[in-house]
TrEMBL record:
Subunit structure: Binds calmodulin. Interacts with NDUFAF3.
Family as reported in the entry's similarity comment: Belongs to the NDUFAF4 family.
Coiled coil (residue ranges): none
Superkingdom, natural source: Eukaryota
Compositionally biased residues, Basic and acidic residues: 17-27
PANTHER family noted in UniProt: NADH DEHYDROGENASE [UBIQUINONE] 1 ALPHA SUBCOMPLEX ASSEMBLY FACTOR 4, UPF0240 PROTEIN
Protein name: NADH dehydrogenase [ubiquinone] 1 alpha subcomplex assembly factor 4
A GO cellular component entry from the record: mitochondrion
Organism: Mesembrinibis cayennensis
């Protein structure tokens, strides 16, 4: 309904409005600024002739030029504290989860997969005396400082199921 109403107002008196716009005086464009340099070159034919004329002396000198380029020898810069990644990183086999083919098979030492992270966090939460930070660091080839940070700042979720009687009370 709204579309019909707007279409009526849009098409109302279209022809007379179009004629009125067409019959209006066109605005005169602003005057162009005279550029002295370009106008000067265009007016003087001897300068134009000098520009387009070939100079044989310069042409022969140009033909005599021979350029031979060589790349400088490649130097390896010593980056100081920066270490370039090694192609042969030391890897370890992961403790595989339940996803089979989708699980990551090999992880670089000092890192863990998502499945392993969730597993070790859950093990530590359920049995903190058995799964201490030192044991986790040895088991997963991690640094003790990183394991302590991981256990301090990441806590896995717990799923709580309420009995049917208390669901209505909640």
């Amino acid at each position: 309904m709204g579309g019909r109403l707007t279409r009526v107002f849009r098409t109302f008196n279209v022809e007379s409005r179009a004629r009125r716009e067409i019959s209006k005086e066109k605005p005169t464009p602003a005057p162009r600024h005279p550029t002295s340099r370009l106008d000067e070159l265009a007016d003087r034919p001897e300068i134009q002739e000098e520009i387009y004329r070939k100079d044989d002396r310069l042409l022969t000198l140009l033909k005599d030029v021979y350029v031979e380029s060589r790349d400088p020898p490649v130097r390896v810069k010593d980056g100081g504290g920066e270490h370039l990644p090694c192609k042969q990183e030391e890897k370890r086999l992961t403790k595989l989860g339940h996803l089979g083919d989708l699980d990551v098979k090999k992880v670089p030492k000092g890192k863990i997969s998502i499945v392993e992270a969730l597993t070790l966090l859950n093990n530590h939460k359920l049995h903190p005396q058995t799964w201490t930070a030192e044991k986790i660091a040895v088991e997963y080839s991690l640094e003790l400082k990183e394991v302590n940070s991981l256990l301090e700042f990441f806590i896995p979720f717990t799923v709580q199921e309420f009995p049917k009687e208390t669901r209505k009370a909640i």
